[in-house]
Design a protein that fits this description.
By secondary structure, the protein is of the alpha/beta class. The protein folds into two domains: about 170 residues, Rossmann fold (3-Layer(aba) Sandwich), CATH 3.40.50; about 30 residues. It has six helices and ten strands, in the order βαββααβαβαβββββα. The strands form three sheets. It has a four-stranded parallel beta sheet with strand order 1-4-5-6, covered by helices on one side. A four-stranded mixed beta sheet has the order 7-10-8-9. A two-stranded antiparallel ribbon has the order 2-3. Helix 3 packs parallel to helix 4. The radius of gyration is 18 Å and the shape is globular. The relative contact order is 0.12.
Length: about 200
């Protein structure tokens, strides 16, 4: 089975938008490793900033979704996290599928994909593969310039905002090619390990 989660980024807060904006402007913007303070992912590491994703650091984000995952995601399954942002849901999915499963986290913003890769390493999630690519509806591969906000590309924002160039693909075009690429990669890794063991005399 392959499950798909299409991320929407951080959940919205019921706080007055003006108050929320005022407070967010005063939060630290430096991106670094944090420990998640509460919630179902408490104690796991995440690379983000207080400014971009405070709800992930405090463990208040995506609670209903993570609870749904806990009831429905099984060991050994493969899941796609589309729009992974800083990787909060990718951590949740990776924990649930375990070492025998796979999670592919698609994140079109290159810098954020890099932070998810750091989060992967921080939590030793070998089952997580970060794919620095967005999914949409071009014929094959396409480059798009999209506005950004707090570590996410967001096509709904005004075009006068900063534009990030992202690689975009259609999932039904990409997936068969991607699976073949992963098979080749795993086969070459296996051959490389065997060669290494033969050379060492083990």
């Amino acid at each position: 089975m392959v499950g798909v989660y299409v991320g929407g980024g951080p959940q919205t807060c019921r706080m007055n938008p003006r108050v929320k904006s005022f407070l967010r402007q005063r939060l630290p913007t430096s991106i670094r490793a944090h420990r998640i303070l509460a919630g179902p992912l408490r104690g796991h590491g995440i690379v983000t900033s207080w400014h971009d994703y405070p709800a992930a650091i405090t463990g208040r984000t995506e609670r209903p979704l993570v609870e749904w995952f806990a009831k429905n995601v099984k060991l050994g399954e493969t899941w796609l996290d589309i729009g992974a942002h800083y990787g909060y849901t990718a951590i949740a999915l990776s924990r649930l599928v375990g070492a025998s499963g796979r999670v592919f986290a698609f994140e079109p913003m290159i810098s954020s994909a890099g932070y998810v890769t750091q989060t992967r390493r921080l939590n030793d999630l070998l089952q997580l593969t970060v794919v620095p690519l967005g999914l949409a509806a071009p014929e094959s591969l396409d480059l798009k310039q999209l506005p950004t906000v707090r570590g996410m590309v967001d096509s709904t924002r005004p075009r006068e905002d900063w534009l990030e160039t992202s690689l975009i693909s259609r999932l039904d075009w990409l997936w068969p090619r991607f699976v073949e690429l992963m098979r080749s990669f795993m086969a070459s890794r296996s051959t490389s390990k065997e060669w290494s063991l033969k050379r060492s005399g083990a």
